[in-house]
Amino acid sequence: MNIKPLADYILIEPVTTEEKTKSGIFLPATAEKERPEQGTVIAVGTGKKTASGKIILLDVKVGDKVLFTKYGPNEIEIDGKEYLIAREDDILAILE
Question: What whole-number distance in Å separates Cα of residue 85 and Cα of residue 7?
Answer without folding.
Answer: 12
